[in-house]
Amino acid sequence: MGRHFFSVSALIALSIFAGSNAFAQGGPRKHAREHAQKFMRRGNDVRRSFEHGPQRALHLSPDERQTFQRNAERWLKMDPQQRNVLRERERVRREQMKNEAEAVLRESGLRLENGARTQFEERYLQERLRIERSIRQETEAKRQQQLPQLKERLKSEFQQHESSPAQTVSPALSVEPKN
Fold it and tell me: Apex CA 153: angle with CA 151 and CA 154, to 5°?
């Protein structure tokens, strides 16, 4: 039941994303025939991306599935303008990463043909994403380790403040009594 629900949820979310993307780029003012032709071209790309979608979903870890589901729910709650902003950010991010991959390739001194060049860029992007994910996880782990200390420190500071309002809250801030 869980895998089937996830697969269906993923397909629904992706189809909504693809449909809203097609509509957002086509717009209601375009001639119907032109819009239909664009949608059909885009539909072929979407169908190709769905071919392996359910299998990809099965290979996700439980945490990745949960993250995907939360993101899909957030996406569905967004208005079209917010979705367009996120699409643009993602486009810019991908362009920057592609430029970085090209720079790394140039700096490496390698002379690769088109197929190998594409593979190099894809591998660079995969490894870059893996590194970024690892850094995010490390940062989150450090944050979780430090949060209890922060909570206790703030609790003690504000308990002192609660008992005598004239005392200082922290070295940087002091509370002066009102006259």
Answer: 65
Cα–Cα separations (whole angstroms), residue 100 to 93, 94, 121, 131? 11, 10, 9, 15
What's the pLDDT band for 151 if we cut at 50, 70, 90?
very high
Largest CA distance in the chain: 78
How far apart are alpha carbons 90 and 66 in whole angstroms?
21
Residue among 102, 98, 106 nearest 129 (CA): 98
Structure tokens at 40: 């059909």
- Give the residue ranges of DSSP H helices in the chain: 2-26, 32-51, 53-58, 62-77, 80-108, 114-163
The CA distance from 32 to 39, in Å, is 10
Taking the CA atoms of 124, 129, 130 and 131 in sequence, report the sign of the dihedral they define. positive
Give per-residue pLDDT as tens, 132-142: 999 999 999 99
Are 26 and 35 contacting, i.e. CB atoms less than 8 angstroms apart?
A: yes
The pLDDT tens digits for 115-132 are: 899 999 899 999 998 999
CA distance 164 to 12: 57
Classified as helix, coil or strand, 38 is helix
Which amino acid appears at position 167 of this protein? Q
Specify the pTM.
Answer: 0.49
